[in-house]
Specification:
Layout: H1 6-39, H2 46-78, H3 85-120
């Protein structure tokens, strides 16, 4: 059975925490920009902007869920017991989830930036 260094896994978990904090800050900035756009939008644009707001709120919820999972993994790794193979599998699967979330967030972010740029024209 392959063994894993807890310090490496804990380092990766701390990276995930920083990543989620950065994404959370980005989401706040995007919502602030959205508020500016809503204040100055034409009535026919309101539906599109509301869709972005709903997506930003959904990302907030996912960030909260992911941060909770990161905390659970951190607590599991801090125990003075050998790491169970199920925990390793879960960790590697969660790594994929984090990367998928980051990719989806970046896609949404650039869609919003593109939309807000077009709105000014």
């Amino acid at each position: 059975m392959k063994t894993y260094d807890k310090s490496h896994l804990l380092f990766e978990i701390s990276c995930w925490n920083r990543l989620l904090k950065c994404i959370e800050l980005d989401n706040v900035c995007l919502k602030n920009r959205l508020a500016d756009l809503i204040a100055n939008c034409k009535p026919n644009e309101l539906d599109n902007l509301e869709q972005f707001l709903n997506r930003f709120i959904a990302k907030d919820i996912l960030i909260s869920i992911l941060r909770n999972e990161v905390a659970l993994q951190s607590n599991e790794m801090m125990k003075d017991k050998p790491i169970k193979s199920e925990a390793i599998v879960h960790h590697f699967n969660f790594r994929k989830d984090i990367m998928f979330f980051k990719t989806a967030f970046d896609k949404m972010k650039y869609e919003f930036i593109e939309h807000s740029t077009k709105q000014k024209d």
